[in-house]
Amino acid sequence: VVPGEGITVDLALKNAWADASDVTVTLVDIDPYLVVYNNNLYLGNMAMNEERNCSFSLGIRADCPYGYDIPLNICITDSSGTEKNFLINLPISFRYHDGWPLIKSDNRYISHPVVCDIDGDGRAELFVSSYDADGGKIYGFNHDGSLLPGSWPICVEPGPGPPSLGDIDNDGELELVVVTGCGDYIDAWNLDGTPVTTGNWPYFIGLGKYGYRWRFTPNLFTPVLADLDNNGSLEVIIGGLVADTWTEGKIYVFNGDGTLYS
């Protein structure tokens, strides 16, 4: 198991002794790294040689260290006062989640990701920008590493920066905002991979395309989405260097429709 994971521990019990009544299975001396959702299971009567299955629902705290063994101390009792104790160790180990890592050999770089549960299913989706051999791309992945449905990956101008997510048009849906063209454009996309066509997107900001240090600039162009004036709508803030001088910085603020904020 891994830190932060929820698990179910299934127990198969057999009464190898005499008939028993009011059989109860309890977790005792609970480890501090363990979150227990049901620590007491009542099985009722069990005849001699009867078999019974039961389950504990558990969680592993996210701060549990790797290499740690979580002890499960299981105590089984019945109405006669008979008590049996068992110890099970749960080793905490590192493993990749299913579908990860993704290996792409044609990338010049991949941005840091933005992670969000966009569909409310309890599993996070992940978005990254990439400069591939055939141009700029924005990828949207499910939690298992598969591409999101729709028009993913999105083809964009070379040199895209890291994406940001927010509801920029107050339609109740998230949009993805990203700087492309090594600082020339700011684009807005719906999460089905189609461009936002309302408003003034994409916006040409012209912070400099293909300057001699272009390969370093995408890290400067991560959009920040915030409600600057407390009017209930997000603004888009962009900062970066100007390619002509590499000493002059600019900060742009846009309304959610792609027009300049004033």
**How many helices does DSSP assign?**
0
Structural domains: how many = 2
Amount of beta strand = 35-45%
Radius of gyration over C-alpha positions, nearest whole angstrom = 27 Å
> Kindly, what is the distance between the CA atoms of the first and last residues, rounded to a whole number of angstroms?
52 Å
Question: Low-confidence runs (pLDDT<50, min 5 residues)?
Answer: 210-219
Shape annotation: elongated
Total beta-strand segments: 19
Order of helices and strands: EEEEEEEEEEEEEEEEEEE
The largest β sheet comes out as: 5 strands, antiparallel
- Mean pLDDT over the residues: 86
Percentage of residues assigned to helices = under 10%
Helix/sheet category: mainly beta
Keywords: Signal
Pfam family, one: FG-GAP_3
Protein name: VCBS repeat-containing protein
InterPro entries: FG-GAP, Integrin_alpha_N
Ordered list of secondary-structure elements with their pairings:
Blueprint: E1 6-14, E2 20-28, E3 34-36, E4 40-46, E5 51-60, E6 69-77, E7 83-91, E8 107-110, E9 114-116, E10 125-132, E11 135-141, E12 154-156, E13 164-166, E14 175-180, E15 185-190, E16 203-204, E17 224-226, E18 235-241, E19 249-254
